[in-house]
């Protein structure tokens, strides 16, 4: 994690880390199960922190489209469902695992791309640096709380998907 408190930069750093973990999960030479565990924790902590601390605050800005923020929440649900499907596959590296991984990559990559173009660009242009740093600290606190709670466990992801 780079030394920034800007919520936009923090979210972008998480997106890049997720891309790295996708590469590791696709690599037959890597610890694919370990990469999935790290990815599951990061995805859930990241999304929960965005929904708890960032999205509600951004909805208050008139130049940030509320529908885009709500759409981002819906895409988190899709990513969580795809993550659960992969976590439930019994054999890492099986054809089913590879198929479910690609569904997860598609869901998360689509969301990250859209979020970066709409919500994050809007935040960068319309939210003062000081406020972005306040949101960044709140995002980091909630993200860390989620990580410490083991948020990426299959049981927790199932609970989130079913709620």
Task: Determine Rg (CA atoms, Å).
Answer: 16 Å
SSE sequence, one letter per element? HHHHHH
Relative strand content: under 5%
Total number of helical segments? 6
Mean pLDDT: 94
Distance N terminus to C terminus? 31 Å
| Count of distinct strands | 0
Tertiary shape: elongated
Structural class: mainly alpha
Can you tell me the residue ranges where pLDDT is under 50 for at least 5 consecutive residues? none
Describe the structure.
This protein is mostly helical. The protein is 80% helix and 0% strand. The protein has helices spanning 7-26, 32-58, 66-87, 95-126, 129-148, 154-162. Helix 2 packs antiparallel against helix 3 (66-87) and helix 2 (32-58) packs across helix 5.
Summarize the structure in short.
It is built from six helices and no strands. It has helices at 7-26, 32-58, 66-87, 95-126, 129-148, 154-162. The chain starts with 6 loop residues before the first helix and ends with a helix.
